[in-house]
Amino acid sequence: MSYITGIGLTPYGKHPGKSTLDLMSEAASAALADAQLTRKEVDGLICGYSTTFPHLMLSTVFVEHFGLDPVYAHGMQMGGATGFGMVMLAHHLIEAGVARNILVVAGENRLTGQTRDAAVQTLAQIGHPVYEVPLGPTIPAYYGLVASRYMHEFGTTEEDLAELAVLMRRHASMHPGAQFRDLVSVADVLASKPVAAPLKLLDCCPVSDGGAAFLISRERVNDFAVRIRGTGQAHTHQHVTAAPSLTQFGAAASMERAKSAAGVTNGDVRYLAIYDSFTITLTILLEELGLAPRGQAGGRARAGHFSHEGERPLNTHGGLLSYGHCGCGGAMAHLVETHLQMTGRAGARQVKDASVAMLHGDGGVLSSHVSLILARD
Question: How far is CA 310 from the centre of its chain?
């Protein structure tokens, strides 16, 4: 048994002059304060990677920088799935008795710490070094290929994708820390700059600076603890040219493992935190997880099903598409928002019921999947 006992999150966007370690420290300090724990009480650390500070031993660099003395320290690299992967590892380490309070932290000055061209080139390296990277595709190009095939198979339209971008911006408009808060319409999304057909600028998440952190504990150390009930992973491929399918990925298998461990079904879930690097990512994950029929995620968003006031609120902070994406910390903001909703601390964004939450993240091109089920005791 383990609990998320503290959360920390910076605003996402531009943080000129702040390094990876600065952003990690800011988020970690906030998480410790939220958990009402001291540095001396932290006996475990798991941290994500940083493309702007690619140190081979980032976990122990942060131990030294932040003044910790853990019995366990570990770094992880799973692309966009890293944040939830670190939570899953911390959960199992706690259950195994390795540590009592594990700090999970990531941060990166991805927007101000490197040029646009450097960011594009670095991220594109997830492609196959022989069969993909030499041809020059970018991350949006890979997802554009997936989107084209998915739309062909299931009848999803560009307007359907745009509905999800509109929803995320509407939610972000209520969060003071979001990178983009101005409302947009379906017409605005469709008219935005083409990036990789059929994806346009507003179908894509921005690049951000930011940091996020959690405390995962063996015991409830405060009144705001949320229990980790179940976790799961699935890994179907790494390179998109080797994917067994461009319409069926590992999300369903990963989530089934998490739901089985938690003893819940989709019908028990009241709040959703689903990875949304692109509108097609969110579409595919919602549908593969059984939260919308194939080809109907956009329609459900249009009907208000996933809205702040809807039956199953989704990413009420604005998700990657509008709150921002700072690398490993991107999906971690989803968990911070989930924790706030589950503990009644989301202010004007508070939903009516977030007692059981489903979280899912993916890394690469829908290649590495991590699922979490959280619940209030």
Answer: 21
